[in-house]
Amino acid sequence: MARNSSLVYSTDAGRHCPDCTRPMAACECKRLAPAARPTGDGIVRLRRETKGRGGKGVTLIDGLPLQDDALLALAKQLKNQCGTGGTVKDGVIEIQGDHRPQLQRLLEAQGYKVKLAGG
After folding, report:
1. CA atoms of 5 and 93, how far apart (whole Å)
2. What is the mean pLDDT of the segment spanning 62-79?
3. Domains of the chain
4. Which of 12, 40, 45, 93 could bridge to 61 as Cys pair (CB 3.0-4.6 Å)?
């Protein structure tokens, strides 16, 4: 058996983490490491999307260079300004409805370079 091999799957515990060799449910290394988002080109993109939402449109705000807590705070502020709901998923702010022009003005006032993306 080679020295550089490691356990990947066990019938007792299922899949194992390749880094710490613990079962995936007990893996410590993924929880300790902060989730790094890829750095973009410095442009915040606004787009409207209806896919997977039963025809209801949302405005997606992508490319913000913020950590999770600051992203949540900005999302709350934007939702209040638009008078609607929304959420943050995987570093992307989702605002219910089509509020692209209003969001563009709000984000540009905060110093972001904003571009309308999509059709």
Report:
1. 41
2. 91
3. 1-33 (no CATH), 43-116 (3.30.780.10)
4. 93
- Which parts of 22-101 are beta strand (E)? 43-49, 58-62, 86-89, 92-96
For 79, phi then psi, to 5°, come to -65, -40
Residue 95 neighbours by CB distance under 10 Å? 25
* Distance from C-alpha of 34 to C-alpha of 107, rounded to nearest angstrom: 26
Token pair 């008078």 in the structure block, residue: 83
What is the C-alpha to C-alpha distance for residues 56 and 100, in angstroms, rounded to an integer?
A: 15
Instruction: Confirm if 46 and 119 have CB atoms less than 8 A apart.
Output: no
pLDDT in tens, 15-30: 777 777 777 777 777 6
Q: Please name the residue that has the structure tokens 């006032």.
A: 109
